[in-house]
């Protein structure tokens, strides 16, 4: 009986959703990946198709157009993409944005944005990072000034996932620079036809080539005063902090699913590839390396599954979620490095999934809070 990486939280309904997601990814996403990688984005049609199939906002209540499920439903979809090394459609950022609306938006904001996001008509992005401030978000300079019935936004953001395709962007800005964290707010900016708003370059990255990561510019952009997330100024930092476990667990669990997919692909490869008259799978080094990787995945699975269950139960704290992000992304880097090595020269060729996964894995230790910031957060809880 071959080794299987079973989830403790799996059930029949989730298996059926997993099948639907896998069919969509294999039949519709994967064939377009090459073109999306060249172009630097996946295009709008695939988002709408995912929406049609009920694969977006699966953990948003049905009353707001979502699937009415919980984090396990989202996990299934993130995992199936990560297992195949398909990172172009950043459903994770889309889900994170939907959760900001759900947890912090006014009733009118939820009604307005969530159904359109679930249908894939509006792609979501969140813009925190600026050219001069990433880890230290207190240092952001984008400013929103109240002017009669509007806010006027000035500033620039960079490295924004889904930035090119986004129809709605949550922009973290200062509404009162004198107040520090209490002077930070999140503004909802609809991008369509918005005067003064400009998407800069789709950035040329080391990996995640099909994912649109962009610069954004705001030059006296006017948004209605009811565009403040939650309707109250100064809540931005608290809103950002309260959703961290959700965001960090997505990265940790995607890292683990990527390791699983890469391990399975490598196992098939080494059984096929011959050297010195036998499959390289028979060499002790290959068997030992794969045994080590399988052990890491098994141990990681136990921890990540527990985090998933805690998140669903509402008990996952930020330090534990940060451990999931830290451990997952660091292990992913180490594991992918070993699996590339087992592919020899083919492991350096972009046509191989493990090669693309290796390049994609590097940023997992950087975005969503760097590994160093995760250690800061965890050490504060010791
Ligand atoms: C592909 C990609 C997608 C991204 N998507 C988004 C997005 O959708 N939205 C968004 O807002 N941002 C996004 N980001 C930005 C990302 O979150 C930041 O790059 C990240 O938080 C690090 O910030 P920085 O780049 O400014 O690095 P810096 O903060 O300048 O850090 C540089 C180095 O200093 C270290 N460092 C900083 N502070 C400390 C400290 N206190 N102790 C120890 N070491 C420290 C860091 O760990 C790092 O090693 C994305 C980035 C990439 C590359």
Question: Please, could you describe this protein's structure?
Answer:
With 382 residues, this protein is α+β, with helices and mostly antiparallel strands. The protein folds into three domains: 107 residues, Orthogonal Bundle (Butyryl-Coa Dehydrogenase, subunit A, domain 1), CATH 1.10.540; 111 residues, Beta Barrel (Butyryl-CoA Dehydrogenase, subunit A, domain 2), CATH 2.40.110; 138 residues, Butyryl-CoA Dehydrogenase, subunit A, domain 3 (Up-down Bundle). The protein is 49% helix and 15% strand. The strands form three sheets. The protein has a four-stranded antiparallel sheet with strand order 2-3-7-6, with no helix packed on it. A hairpin with a 2-residue loop joins β2 and β3. α1 packs across α3 and α3 packs parallel to α7. The chain starts with 11 loop residues before the first helix and ends with a helix. The relative contact order is 0.11. Flavin-adenine dinucleotide binds next to β1, β3 and α11. The site of flavin-adenine dinucleotide (FAD) has 21 residues, from β1, β3 and α11.
